[in-house]
Amino acid sequence: MYDIARVRADFPILSREVNGKPLIYLDNGASAQKPQVVIDAMTRAYEHEYANVHRGLHYLSNLATDKYEAVRGIVARFLGAPDPEEIVFTTGTTEGINLVSYAWAAPRLEAGDEIVLSVLEHHANIVPWHFLRERQGVVLKWVEPEPDMTLDPQKVIDTIGPRTKLVAVTQMSNVTGTLVDVAAICRGARAKGVPVLVDGSQGSVHRPVSIPEIGCDFYAITGHKLYGPSGSGAIWISKARMAEMRPFLGGGDMIREVSRDAVTYNDPPMKFEAGTPGIVQQIGMGVALEYLMDLGMENVAAHEAALRDHAIARFQGLNWLNVQGHAPGKGAIFSFTLEGAAHAHDISTVLDKKGIAVRAGTHCAMPLLEHLGVGATCRASFGLYNTTEEIDRLVEALEFCHELFA
């Protein structure tokens, strides 16, 4: 049984007050809070275990290297990936997608070649492809969602043409919570010989992930949304695609030998990891992923589905609340506006005075907000430690906002 009181006790920040009110943290889509076990592991690493990795033969270096490299296997288990050597460490999903853009796509795409994207994408899965559009003449082909913000996999597949070289798609929208059937997209793309990159920043947080079941070529995650530290992340890359990639960054660890006239590169995944990494950040992410696996991602998904259903039921009673996106099976992410002149930033400020943390703005998804016809929204995004009582508090605060701005 999912013991929400015990889970909440694992997160020390949830016991604090903001503006004299108990904190209600509903900004998990931007960054999640950290359990004590992650905080303790990072503190211990800095206090008692820190040294540079892969560099020395002394005790601390070996200890740090062992703990750091063990995270590769933890990430592989979390993603259901078959081989830890297919895991490349990054600072987060943004770096992971840029790695693919620079190391895999840029050397092989020519002017007129196409990348298929959905309008649901976060800027991190848009801007790296714009680089190729600007610099190499690559064409971006966009797939629009349905009115309820569902993304039809067949529409994505049908957009693939003879010049399509990559499909890049999110598993879950960070604005509407839409859950995308990435496995269906991968099956269709694979039948046409086109690789697929999946942005797992949101999807991996809210439900179990199985790389073999998805069938993608690239899958990126970011640690700070997975209850780990900022500056941590990873991308799974199939060995076939790794073999096609050139190095992205140059420096220590990604080389075997360097001379005045030549350089020999290391084997993957080290080939794509240059310089001193975020050692403690990655150790912290590993502990966070183990924490999630101990809870059970199926249990997390069930808890958040109950939160989603409770929020939907409560929001339906607010006929002046405009919620963006009603895709079936969506995640517990809600972007909304209020009827009238209240700006999202004003709403967020009022909610903050009541101790409720939400996001306000474009959520790094400007094409989607343009498609929705809104300039900005408030976003309440729920996590594994949120409760139905907190949703009720949010509704009370929104009713206050409605009266205030009416």
Automatic annotation (TrEMBL):
Key words, A-Z: Pyridoxal phosphate, Transferase
Cross-referenced CDD domains: SufS_like (cd06453)
Function: Catalyzes the removal of elemental sulfur and selenium atoms from L-cysteine, L-cystine, L-selenocysteine, and L-selenocystine to produce L-alanine.
EC numbers on record: 2.8.1.7
Pfam family, one: Aminotran_5
Record-annotated Aminotransferase class V domain positions: 24-394
Matching PROSITE patterns: AA_TRANSFER_CLASS_5
Family: Belongs to the class-V pyridoxal-phosphate-dependent aminotransferase family. Csd subfamily.
Superkingdom, natural source: Bacteria
Record carries keyword Transferase: yes
Cofactor list: pyridoxal 5'-phosphate
Catalytic activity: (sulfur carrier)-H + L-cysteine = (sulfur carrier)-SH + L-alanine
Name under which the protein is recorded: Cysteine desulfurase
